[in-house]
Amino acid sequence: MTVSDPSLGLVAEGQIYREGIKALLREHFPLILEAEHADDVARWSVEPDLIVIDAADGGDDCVHTALTNRFRNVRIVYMLRHASHDHAVALIRHGAHGVLGPDLTPEVLVLYLRLVLAGQTAIPEFALSFNPAEHQLPRILGDDVEIPITVRERQILEELANGRGNKSIARMLGISEQTVKFYVKSVMRKLKVTNRTQAAIWALSHVAHAASHDLAAGMAPQDDEHDSAHALEPVPNPVTH
Description:
The chain is an alpha/beta fold. Helix content is 41%, strand content 9%. It starts with 7 loop residues before the first strand and ends in a 24-residue tail after the last helix.
C-alpha cells in the first residue's frame, strides 16, 4: 500500500449505508476495512491511514478514545447525517481530524478526505464559528471573501478540481508545464491556501458560481497579460520553490 493508495477504515451501522460510502470511495481507497461498531475494529488485520465514522448515534467520545488507543497514527473523520453545529464542535474537541456535513457531493467528500490525510482539519461550514486555533488545531479555508480570479487562473482551478496534474493541465490548455506551475502558485497565494487540495476545494464551491455570475451580468472576467498569443511565458519566482 503506497502513500498514493491510502487505506480506509469505515465504521457505520447498516450495511446499505456502508455499501454506499464504499461505492463512492473505492476508486480512491483500494483497501477499505469495515466494521459495524468501534469494538469490531479488533478484527482488522492492518492499521488504516484514515477512519471514517458514521456519527449518527452519539457516544463519540468513547468511540474516539477506543480507536485512538488501538491505532496511534490513524486520522479520524466523522460524517454527520444532520447539520448540527454543537455536534460538530464537540467532535473536534474530542480530537477528530475532520467532521463532514450531510450535503457533500462525492467529489468534495474525496477532496476533504485528502485534505485530512495531508494533515489538515476539516470543519463543516455550519460550524465555522468554532476557532480551531484556540485548541491548537490547524485552520482550514472557509472564507467567502470575493477574490479576483483571471480567466487562466479559473481554468487552472477548474482542472485542479477535476483532479488533473500539471502535465495533464498543460496539454489540455496548450501551455507549458512551467506555466501551469506558475499559475498554481499564483492562485494559491491569492486564495491563501497551502496546497492544491485546498485550492481544488475552494474551486468546487466558488469557480462555477463566479462564472455563472459573470455571464448573467454580461461581463467578461479579468484576463491575464500572459495569455496573449505571443506573450512570453511567466517564470516562477525561485524564492517560492
